[in-house]
Design a protein that fits this description.
Elements lengths: L1 E13 L12 E13 L11 H12 L20 H12 L10 E10 L2 E5 L4
Antiparallel strand pairs: 1-2, 2-3, 3-4
GO biological process, one term: tRNA queuosine(34) biosynthetic process
Pathway: Purine metabolism; 7-cyano-7-deazaguanine biosynthesis
Keywords: Lyase, Metal-binding, Queuosine biosynthesis, Zinc
C-alpha cells in the first residue's frame, strides 16, 4: 500500500456559537490542512497521484475558505465552524474530485487550528 500526505494552509476567522468561553467571540486562525491518501497501484510514471494534481484539488476547496469569516458561508452559517466540522467539510468536498477512484482513496483530513491542536476526520472506523 502506498500513502501520500500533503499540507496546505489557509487563514480564516470564526466564532463558536453558544460556546461557554472566549471562543464564542470572533477570532482567527492560521489553519493547516493535512490530506492523506492511499492506494496500491502506481501509474505508468510510478506515482499514486501527482502531488501537483492533489494540491490543485485541495486548493480548489481552500479558495472557498481562505480569508473568509467562516460563520457566513455554507454550511457554517447553520453549524458551528469547529475544527471537527471543518475537517469533515473538507473531506466531503475533496472526495468529490476526480482524483479518487477504485485505486486512490482518501484516508483522512487533519486540520490544525494551532501548532498544538488538531482535529481529524476519516470514514474509517
Amino acid at each position: 500500500m502506498f500513502e501520500l500526505t500533503i499540507a496546505v494552509n489557509f487563514e480564516a476567522a470564526h466564532c463558536i456559537r453558544n460556546y461557554p468561553g472566549k471562543c464564542n467571540r470572533l477570532h482567527g486562525h492560521n489553519w493547516k490542512v493535512e490530506v492523506n491518501i492511499y492506494g496500491c497501484q502506481l501509474n505508468e510514471l510510478g506515482m499514486l497521484v501527482d502531488f501537483v494534481d492533489l494540491k490543485a484539488a485541495i486548493n480548489g476547496i481552500m479558495v472557498n475558505l481562505d480569508h473568509y469569516y467562516l460563520n457566513e458561508i455554507e454550511p457554517f452559517c447553520r453549524i458551528n465552524p469547529t475544527a471537527e466540522n471543518l475537517a469533515k467539510y473538507i473531506y466531503d468536498e475533496l472526495i468529490k474530485t476526480p482524483i479518487f477512484d477504485e485505486n486512490v482513496k482518501l484516508r483522512s483530513i487533519k486540520l490544525w487550528e494551532s501548532p498544538n491542536s488538531a482535529a481529524a476526520y476519516s470514514q474509517e472506523a
